[in-house]
Amino acid sequence: MGTQQPFLLQMVHYRSALEPRCRFQEEDSKEYGSPVVSASTIADVIKSTKTKTSVSPKPIVMRAKFAHCPNLTIIDTPGLDLKLLGDNHGFSDSIECVISIG
To answer: Which phi and psi angles does 69 have, rounded to 5°?
Structure first.
Protein backbone atom coordinates (compact mmCIF):
# COMPACT_ATOMS: atom_id res chain seq x y z
CA MET A 1 0.00 0.00 0.00
CA GLY A 2 1.41 3.39 -0.91
CA THR A 3 0.61 6.66 0.79
CA GLN A 4 0.61 10.20 -0.52
CA GLN A 5 1.59 11.54 2.90
CA PRO A 6 4.48 10.81 5.25
CA PHE A 7 3.56 8.11 7.78
CA LEU A 8 4.97 8.37 11.32
CA LEU A 9 4.81 5.31 13.57
CA GLN A 10 5.64 6.17 17.18
CA MET A 11 6.34 3.00 19.15
CA VAL A 12 6.22 3.56 22.91
CA HIS A 13 7.43 1.05 25.51
CA TYR A 14 4.56 0.94 28.01
CA ARG A 15 4.86 -1.80 30.65
CA SER A 16 1.16 -2.23 31.38
CA ALA A 17 0.17 -2.64 27.70
CA LEU A 18 0.28 -6.41 27.28
CA GLU A 19 -1.58 -6.02 23.96
CA PRO A 20 -0.65 -3.28 21.45
CA ARG A 21 -2.66 -0.06 21.88
CA CYS A 22 -2.76 1.85 18.61
CA ARG A 23 -4.23 5.32 18.07
CA PHE A 24 -4.14 7.76 15.17
CA GLN A 25 -3.54 11.46 15.70
CA GLU A 26 -6.65 13.46 14.81
CA GLU A 27 -6.31 15.70 11.73
CA ASP A 28 -5.42 19.32 12.58
CA SER A 29 -4.97 18.42 16.27
CA LYS A 30 -2.34 17.13 18.66
CA GLU A 31 -4.91 14.77 20.25
CA TYR A 32 -5.12 11.04 19.51
CA GLY A 33 -8.41 9.33 18.67
CA SER A 34 -10.01 6.10 19.84
CA PRO A 35 -7.93 2.91 20.05
CA VAL A 36 -7.64 0.92 16.81
CA VAL A 37 -7.42 -2.84 17.12
CA SER A 38 -7.30 -4.69 13.80
CA ALA A 39 -4.78 -4.36 11.00
CA SER A 40 -7.60 -3.96 8.47
CA THR A 41 -8.96 -0.99 10.45
CA ILE A 42 -5.50 0.61 10.46
CA ALA A 43 -5.26 0.13 6.67
CA ASP A 44 -8.74 1.65 6.23
CA VAL A 45 -7.74 4.75 8.22
CA ILE A 46 -4.61 5.22 6.11
CA LYS A 47 -6.57 4.77 2.85
CA SER A 48 -9.21 7.29 3.97
CA THR A 49 -6.61 10.07 4.35
CA LYS A 50 -6.03 10.48 0.61
CA THR A 51 -5.30 14.04 -0.43
CA LYS A 52 -6.36 15.92 -3.53
CA THR A 53 -2.74 16.74 -4.36
CA SER A 54 -0.18 14.20 -5.49
CA VAL A 55 1.84 14.35 -2.25
CA SER A 56 1.05 16.13 1.02
CA PRO A 57 3.61 17.23 3.63
CA LYS A 58 1.08 16.65 6.48
CA PRO A 59 1.93 13.29 8.07
CA ILE A 60 -0.36 10.46 9.15
CA VAL A 61 0.69 9.79 12.77
CA MET A 62 0.02 6.54 14.63
CA ARG A 63 1.16 5.88 18.19
CA ALA A 64 1.49 2.27 19.36
CA LYS A 65 2.00 1.51 23.06
CA PHE A 66 3.15 -2.01 23.92
CA ALA A 67 5.09 -3.73 26.70
CA HIS A 68 7.32 -5.60 24.24
CA CYS A 69 8.55 -2.80 21.97
CA PRO A 70 11.30 -0.19 22.23
CA ASN A 71 10.77 3.57 22.20
CA LEU A 72 11.21 4.17 18.49
CA THR A 73 9.85 6.50 15.81
CA ILE A 74 9.74 5.28 12.21
CA ILE A 75 9.09 7.76 9.40
CA ASP A 76 7.97 6.45 6.01
CA THR A 77 7.96 9.07 3.27
CA PRO A 78 5.89 8.85 0.07
CA GLY A 79 7.65 6.92 -2.65
CA LEU A 80 7.49 6.49 -6.37
CA ASP A 81 5.58 3.61 -7.92
CA LEU A 82 7.84 2.09 -10.57
CA LYS A 83 4.83 0.49 -12.27
CA LEU A 84 3.45 3.96 -12.98
CA LEU A 85 6.79 5.39 -14.07
CA GLY A 86 7.99 2.41 -16.04
CA ASP A 87 11.58 1.72 -15.08
CA ASN A 88 13.03 4.12 -17.61
CA HIS A 89 14.89 6.12 -14.99
CA GLY A 90 17.14 3.35 -13.62
CA PHE A 91 15.57 3.39 -10.14
CA SER A 92 15.85 -0.40 -9.79
CA ASP A 93 19.58 -0.30 -10.55
CA SER A 94 20.12 2.51 -8.04
CA ILE A 95 18.26 0.62 -5.31
CA GLU A 96 20.20 -2.59 -6.01
CA CYS A 97 23.49 -0.67 -5.81
CA VAL A 98 22.60 0.80 -2.41
CA ILE A 99 21.52 -2.60 -1.06
CA SER A 100 24.67 -4.37 -2.27
CA ILE A 101 26.91 -1.76 -0.59
CA GLY A 102 25.12 -2.18 2.78
So the answer is: -140, 155
pLDDT tens sequence for the chain (102 residues): 455 678 888 999 999 999 888 888 877 777 787 777 677 777 777 677 665 555 566 788 889 999 999 999 998 876 655 555 555 556 566 556 555 554
Query: 14 with 22: CB under 8 angstroms?
Result: no
Residue 77 lies inside a defined structural domain of this protein: yes
Counting the structural domains of the chain, the total is: 1
Q: Is the dihedral of CA 64, 68, 70, 74 positive or negative?
A: negative
The answer to whether the Cα torsion of 67, 72, 73, 74 is positive or negative is negative
